[in-house]
Amino acid sequence: MSSLIGGIYPPTLDDGVERDQLVQTIKDWTIANGLAVRPPPAFADGEFEGALAISAPVTLFPSPFPKACFEEARAIQTKYNELYARISQDEEYLGSLVQEVAGGDDFIANLWKVHLRVKEEGYVQNLSLGLFRSDYMVHQDGDNLQIKQVEFNTIASSFGGLSTQTSLLHKHLAKTEYPLLKEPVSLPPADLPPNPSAEGLAAGLAAAFHAYGKSALGHQTCVLFLVQDEERNVFDQRHLEYALRSSGAEPIPVFRLPFSQILTHTTIPPSSPGRQLLYHPPQNPARTFEVAVVYLRAGYGPADYPSQSAWEARYQIERSAAIACPSVLTQLAGMKKVQQVLATPEAVTSGPGALRRFVPDSDGDATYQALWKTFANIYPLDTSPAGLEARRLATDPEECKRFVMKPQREGGGNNFYRTAIPRRLSEIPESHWGSYILMELITPPPLVNTILRNGKLEHGGVICELGIYGTCLWDQKTGAVLRNEESGYLLRTKGDQSEEGGVAAGYGCMDSCRLV
Ligand code: ADP
Ligand code: MG
Ligand code: MG
């Protein structure tokens, strides 16, 4: 990709004042503007009692990203939003995929049980909100650069708050610092695209809040963020909260509640057929708010469900009248298994594939083809002919090096790469292999950048992953789509020796795009 830029980029900095000056500016800007995270517990437990923040890991320069790929990913987001809204509505189809993985995956089985319990008594809320993020890497095949989807997130899609700030940081440096370097860098504003991710995600939450309407019980309505107890990425969430609070003429009340305290601070009045979710703020339990929207930044993995009462808490949210972001069905639509069946060619399914099911001909072939182009090869590990072939590849000591194997999990750190795949498979019963999928590794073009993490610089080859946010509000019963927007982007960058790329999981860092 360096051929697209010309010259050496990013420039080499001298080891002395030049580098220190840039680093100091970044350290100050990040804290001054909330591009920050809480420090790890070892630091946080000291004498500062929760008053510490540290700069989020960032690149010194925005990484080059092909403009055509960036535009393609943005342009397709509303189609992806609609696709996943439709999948969420197809309970029967989702149920069949859940059955395929549930045998080896209690977590997915338990989520499905929550849905079935609520289905039995009947859902009282038909509206569903998705704050999605579709993640891609640029796949290089000779001279051809094409975005390939890494995954589609339907729950707790994070970094929309920090991402806006990262774009602003790099814009600031482009004005103040880069032109002063010994090898000056000139980045015209048009090469640094605007990134309204915080505002866009907040607008999605606001749309659901307003669609909920007034409380039939006469309470003030609110938005409830469900969060993890020891969340370090709290400022990312706060940026969304602050944007949401100030998004309209009327202030929207927003509360944060640890997932573990749902049953302590929320109730559903037994006498009310509307099953309104009531929130009682811990600081003043005499006050009652009615929850219009529940935004989950927790509950996406087994660690948030240490006991049956946590599952009861999720059930309470799901059966309530609050608009869930996401509902259980929408969360399940984000299973890697779903992505795998969408990406399975019709030659293999010998009949209309999953993508056809959700993108009917009436949508036009262009939509189908545009989505199809973004899929990498993904295989089941079941006992179908395609699955058996994938099992052969996954257990072959050479072939396995082309793949990553994924369970139905979120949040980073769960995958098995290359030669770890046969090792992992040998540890689990064959009857559970079907709860994983096998995906070809995407090979992005080589890039170089410097990451500033915990005050230290890491220079070397990097790999970038682009996420496009989407916000979608729809009616599960009628299929009507009330909102469907592309909502900004995330660029995450990791060292090219690291397999995983999650910023929160400690592997990646925040970045922004220099379009080339
Ligand atoms: P999670 O839901 O845990 O984030 P992902 O599917 O995003 O799971 O995988 C985690 C990370 O693994 C990605 O951010 C990316 O760095 C790497 N990864 C996943 N799939 C691929 C792939 N097909 N090719 C290359 N890297 C991948
Ligand atoms: Mg994910
Ligand atoms: Mg991911």
UniProtKB/TrEMBL annotation:
SUPFAM superfamilies in the record: Glutathione synthetase ATP-binding domain-like (SSF56059), PreATP-grasp domain (SSF52440)
UniProt family annotation: Belongs to the eukaryotic GSH synthase family.
Annotated cofactor note: Binds 1 Mg(2+) ion per subunit.
Keywords, alphabetical: ATP-binding, Glutathione biosynthesis, Ligase, Magnesium, Metal-binding, Nucleotide-binding
Record keyword Metal-binding present: yes
Binding site for ATP: 151, 336, 406-415, 417, 439-442, 465, 494, 500
Domain Glutathione synthase substrate-binding span(s) in chain numbering: 221-333
EC number: 6.3.2.3
Gene3D superfamilies for this protein: 3.30.1490.50, 3.30.1490.80, ATP-grasp fold, B domain, Glutathione synthase, substrate-binding domain superfamily, eukaryotic, Glutathione Synthetase, Chain A, domain 3
Protein name: Glutathione synthetase
Essential cofactor(s): Mg(2+)
Residues that, per the record, bind substrate: 133, 155-158, 231-233, 237, 297-300, 492, 503-504
Source species of the chain: Thermothelomyces thermophilus (strain ATCC 42464 / BCRC 31852 / DSM 1799)
InterPro entries associated with the record: Glutathione_synthase (IPR005615), Glutathione_synthase_a-hlx (IPR014042), Glutathione_synthase_C_euk (IPR014709), Glutathione_synthase_N_euk (IPR014049), GSH-S_sub-bd_sf (IPR037013), GSH_synth_subst-bd (IPR004887), PreATP-grasp_dom_sf (IPR016185)
GO molecular function, one term: glutathione synthase activity
Reactions performed catalytically: gamma-L-glutamyl-L-cysteine + glycine + ATP = glutathione + ADP + phosphate + H(+)
